[in-house]
Write a structure and sequence with these properties.
It is built from nine helices and nine strands. The chain is of the alpha/beta class and 264 residues long. Strands 1, 2, 3, 4, 5, 6, 7, 8 and 9 form a nine-stranded mixed beta sheet that branches. Strand 1, helix 1 and strand 2 form a beta-alpha-beta unit.
């Protein structure tokens, strides 16, 4: 019987009580046992912490209690909190699931791990696992499949066409994630830059990037990037220019605009 990797689901919160319960329940209901739910809270002033506490107490009473950890301290913003999560994670893989997001089904992690030939201590274990994403509304109801589809084979050049894999469907080996922390110069698109840098590192080392061919995440369509769309685009242009060159970044953004017009 092959070893089972521990998966860290990291959720960064601040005054997220309106949407967090859906995420907590989603992790709680997974039929895969080797899960750590790491909640990094920026000292919420609403009911977020009491909600987490109820979740912890409920899970200590079940036959196979979840590993649930809460880190509550002030941070310098979303990506600073996510860096803290990377450093605190005990899992072999880490993925970020925002408040309001959920794992697609109760067997999502079981199905994902079944595709991985994991051997403890083996550096050739897949570095990145990825899949598809569905969009849901504020009530968690399905809206549509994500317009950008995950490519059959993912590489760092793939992201010149946009963020083809949603951040919440991008599982990274924690040891490698710690080598490439989020760049705090970016306020809205540091996840885009982070994914590119990780893909570059992994490709250079010739470690496997595994396409699960699964829908992994139900993603809440409203978020920090959505509310700051134009500033996010400007950051993404800067990131593209850094990794792909200014001309390639300009051409990509002209295509994004044309594509948006054609869809209307």
């Amino acid at each position: 019987m092959k070893d089972k990797p521990l998966i860290t689901i990291a959720t960064v919160t601040y005054n997220a009580s309106d949407t967090l319960e859906r995420t907590l329940r989603s992790v709680e209901e997974q039929d895969y046992p080797a899960v750590e739910h790491l909640i990094v809270d920026g000292c919420s002033t609403d009911n977020t912490l009491s909600l987490v506490q109820r979740y912890v107490e409920r899970n200590t009473m079940v036959n196979t209690p979840r590993q649930i950890r809460l880190l509550c301290e002030r941070d310098e913003g979303l990506y600073d909190a996510m860096n803290k999560a990377i450093l605190q994670a005990q899992g072999n893989y880490i993925v970020f699931l925002n408040a309001g997001d959920k794992l697609h089904a109760k067997d999502t992690l079981s199905l994902l791990v079944s595709k991985v030939s994991w051997v403890d201590g083996d550096y050739s274990n897949p570095a990145i696992l990825y899949g598809e994403t569905d969009l849901v509304d504020d009530n968690g109801h399905f809206l549509r499949h994500r317009r950008l589809q995950a490519p059959k084979e993912l590489g760092w050049r793939s992201f010149l066409n946009g963020m083809l894999v949603c951040h919440q469907s991008f599982y990274v080996r924690t040891d490698i994630a710690r080598e490439e922390m989020y760049d705090l110069r970016y306020r809205f698109s540091a996840d885009y830059d982070w994914c590119i840098r990780l893909l570059q590192k992994v490709e250079k080392r010739h470690i496997q990037i595994l396409n699960s061919k699964l829908i992994l995440t139900d993603y809440l369509s409203e978020g920090l990037t959505t509310h700051n769309h134009w500033r996010s685009l400007w950051e993404r242009y800067r990131i593209m220019s850094q990794h792909y060159g200014c001309l390639a970044a300009l051409g990509a953004h002209l295509w994004f605009v044309l594509r948006a017009v054609l869809r209307k």
